[in-house]
User: Fold SRPBCC family protein from Luteimonas soli.
Amino acid sequence: MNDRIEKRIELAAPVSRVWRALTDHREFGEWFRVAIEAPFAPGEESRGHITYPGYEHIQWRAVVRDMAPERLFSFSWHPYAIEPGVDYSGEPPTLVEFRLEPHGDGTLLTVTESGFDRIPAHRRDEAFRMNDGGWAEQVQNIKRHVE
Assistant:
């Protein structure tokens, strides 16, 4: 198994538009399907709940790590933490990075999630597999959102 998931997608939207879709908590929630309670702020925990059908019972929790305007937005979280009543806080989180680069008239977005090698062995493979599929879907969601 690999330690990192990476998805790249070309978006027919300027970097400023993609940046807003990533870092405005309401816009992020629209395409990511999560209702986030407050704006993103580096060093702060972001909370809310998933709105994706079948996953509405799941709380969203991520710590914003970096917001380098129009270049990098990142957060850490506990991947595929979906079991009710399970406390994942003792596990090391993974790091999710959204990197933006101008690409012609649009934007090249690279989404990377790393740190799966530190996830407990009993759930590592499933967390990787589910998030790999999840990011494949999410890059299409943001594409539809910004284009």
Notes: The chain has a mean pLDDT of 96.
